[in-house]
Amino acid sequence: MSTATGKTLLVTVGSTQFADLSDAALAESALDAFRAAGIDTLIVQLGFAPIPDHIAAVVGREGGSGQVGGVKVKVMRYTGSPGEMDALMKSSDGVVSHAGSGSILAALRMPRPLLVVPNDAVMDDHQQELADALKAGGYVSVSSVDDLVSGVQELFGAQHKVFPPARPDRFAAILDETAGFV
After folding, report:
1. Residues near 151 by Cβ (< 8 Å), separated by ≥ 6?
2. Phi, psi of 160, deg, nearest 5
3. How far is CA 9 from CA 3, 36, 104, in A?
4. pLDDT tens-digit readout, 126-142
5. What is the dihedral of CA 8, 13, 18, 24, to 10 degrees?
């Protein structure tokens, strides 16, 4: 969570590549804007996307940590386990995520303020549909890659509804009914 001087922002692309999002989050102009917005730590999980040269010069080609533009930046390809991603989310003040359902649900169940950035390069616009539905429900903020900085700036002031807790018993009942066990 917040350090003595600022906020921690986590950007995750899950198990895919979404270089447009990770590049936008790591752009020098974004780092300047994040620092001005009170973010002093940026964690970017970018899958197998290339690490931009100005970041790689500090953290290395495979990731690591260092100061870039007055922001502590940690770049990683993947986490070692779902528990590690949960810990990163818990330690962050806000999360920016691609619109993958697993990443979204993990952040909503923390709960953490969540900015969803759909990847319009994936099939059938399903990420946009999911993001729009959750935004309509009041659970998340949504942004495009091009509007990432303004989306992050708005994220910390946004009032999101708390997402309902998991109810595994409901799923089991639906499955039993569908399979004809009831």
Report:
1. 96, 115, 117, 141, 142, 143, 144
2. -100, 150
3. 11, 13, 15
4. 889 999 999 999 999 99
5. -10
**β-strand partners of 141:** 115
| pLDDT in the model for residue 82 | 75
In this predicted model, which residue has the larger pLDDT, 144 or 182?
144
Which residue is listed with tokens 């004809």?
180
Q: How large is the angle between the packed helices 19-26 and 28-36, nearest 10 degrees? A: 60
Residue 110, both tokens: 């923390």
Indicate if the pLDDT at residue 3 is higher than 70.
no
* Region of 52 on the Ramachandran plot (φ > 0 left; ψ -120 to 50 alpha; else beta): beta
CB count within 10 Å of CB 176 equals 11
Torsion sign (Cα): 20, 22, 39, 55: negative
Work out the average pLDDT over 27-52. Answer: 96
**pLDDT tens-place string over residues 139-157:** 999 999 999 999 999 998 8
Which single residue is written with the structure tokens 């903020």? 141
63 three-state secondary structure: coil
Report the C-alpha gap between 40 and 37 in whole angstroms: 9
Please name the fold of domain 7-179.
Rossmann fold (3.40.50)
For the chain, which residues make up each domain, given as ranges?
7-179
Q: What is the DSSP letter of 6?
A: -
